[in-house]
Amino acid sequence: MSTKRFSTLEGVFIPSLLSIFGVIMYLRLGWVVGQVGLFGAIAIILLSNVISLSTGLSVSSIVTNIRIGHGGAYSIITKSLGVEAGGAIGLPLYFAQAISVAFYIVGFTESWIYTFPQHDFLMVSLIVWFGVLFVSYLSARLAFRLQYGVLVIVAISLFSIFLSTSTAGNPGALHFPKFSGDFFKAFAVFFPAVTGFMAGLSMSGELNDPRKGIPNGTLWAIFVSIAIYLALTIWFWSHASSEALTSNTALIIDLGRWRIPIIAGIMGATLSSALNMCVTAPRTLFALSQKSGISILKPFIYRNKGGEPTTAILLTSFVALITILAGTLNQVASLLTMFFLITYGLINLSVLIEQSIGIASFRPSFRVSKLISFIGALGCVIVMFLINSLFSLIAIGTIVILYLWLIQKETKKYSPDVRSGLLIFLAEQMAKTASRLPYYPKIWKPNVVVLVEDIENFFFAVPLIHSIIYPSGRLTAFQISDKENKRKDRQKLCEVLEPFKEDGILTEALVAESADVVSGAITVLQTVKDTHFPPNTFLYLLSNDSPGDEKAFQIIKQACLENFGVIILKEGIEVEYGEDRAINLWIRKGSPNIDLSILTTLQLQKNWDGFIRILQIVDSKEAEDDSIAYLVRLAELMRLPEGVDVQVLVGQFPSILEQAPVADINIFGMAENPDLGLIRKVSDAIKTPVLFLRDSSQESATA
Fold this sequence. Notes:
It is built from 26 helices and 10 strands. By secondary structure, the chain is of the alpha/beta class. It has 3 domains: about 400 residues, Amino acid/polyamine transporter I (Up-down Bundle); about 130 residues, HUPs (Rossmann fold, 3-Layer(aba) Sandwich); about 130 residues, HUPs (Rossmann fold).
């Protein structure tokens, strides 16, 4: 059953825009202008949207790097910071969304009672609540289709406002804002208006193309809303005095060209927001029931034939009903805002972490500066404490308690988070904590161990090894020596490794004492595999002579048994790495060694500022089109950079090698039992350095 059914416009842009428009735009923005003046109100709008825009950009970046699935913000946090962090924020976020349904229903009811004061407040709220439940239970598509009508009503109400010629007193004086108590009080009143900008994110699992839809829809909603809020701010200032604006929050209805469209716009915006939350909150609960490992949430994993999470919808409606009947909206309003802000802050933090620790899996097609993510995360914290310090502490304490509880549960759910990579990046002394966390291919980055048999041969390979590892990889170089030369060999090795250390690469030099190279090398490989930060890739420098091939084969075979990825480097006749900036990546269809080859290729491409050419050999012209289509799909799946050249060559391997396009290096997959003689023949035929690679279970180019 396919659940991909919403476009960017229907599933992201309109829900986000209508969630930003609402009671605050119609009934509180004028009060803000009256409190702090024109420039003060503009400052509040711009400062508030610094957070919304920073978070929107962070969201846009991270959704182009992951398969987001169901759950929106919860899914992002889970995939970046782990199941426990996702569950700790996901539960409060869900209840904040569910209770927000009641907020919007009450906002609608207040507008209704303003128009029809003879009607009973509670009865109107219950009727609206039932209508919202009915529509959201019936179909999310129906709920979103109703948004088109609401958007038209809101647009007409805005025309009624901007076409008005009525005034209430003279405009207030122009003065720069004073950052005093009144300013921050007005800021706290206004800020919830911008917390609806990610309404479309919660529909992530049901969008046709979330990688494009979420960035485009979210950012356009933010930009459009900023323009309209600024225009309305100027309108309020030019049509009424400060006294009129602060004394009558419904002044916009009285000053509008036509009263009815404005009242309809207020009702439509609040009703649409209630529908949006009643549709999106169950999706958060559905994702929690799927991924969090919390057994009590299992009943909410059910979906009907239409793809609607009906049990989650019923619980959401029940929570909203209890909130309406309890009548405690004002008391919990600030607390709910805290949970939204913590969610936005964690999204920014997730992107900042993945940007900072240098893992190869973070390759978003939409890139943002670390400064943006940092500003978004810091801004959320500052705004929380500006709005309400007590509720900020309560919200943070709630999430910490939930996190500790989920940690105790020791969930076995798959969680491709980056915590292990972060702990390694921050400090070696946290190794004990990091080693308790599971390893996932998502956090792979080059951590190479290399056997140095000939120091001169290794010296010439240093530039290439540097390009494979830099900037955030690690290198362990070891030699096998006798007791007499051990100290001297270590000194030479350290000297050769100096360029790595100068560039900030974590580097270790080991010299093992052994009479036999094979047994000594095997001992070192087994030893480093059990360290806190074990290497994941063994690099072997193949010499020009074949007498030592049997020993080399034994060492390489042992590296495979120890679950190292293996790279065999054979230097070419002419060695000028990065001169042509071209990398030939040879891919055999169905090869088991694609992941390490692609990850290594990406490292070289990035450090050489080069370009990638993917090559495949086929037997006949008839197979050429299928092969090209396969390579194009592979490049897209592996998120390779734009401009990758795909070529299919027809013929036999030995003859094709001599016709290979010019490149700095050629990269091939390696057989289970490598033929070292063949590797030399390939290098001689192609006249460039070659890498032959074999995957382990530690790499994934699609993570």
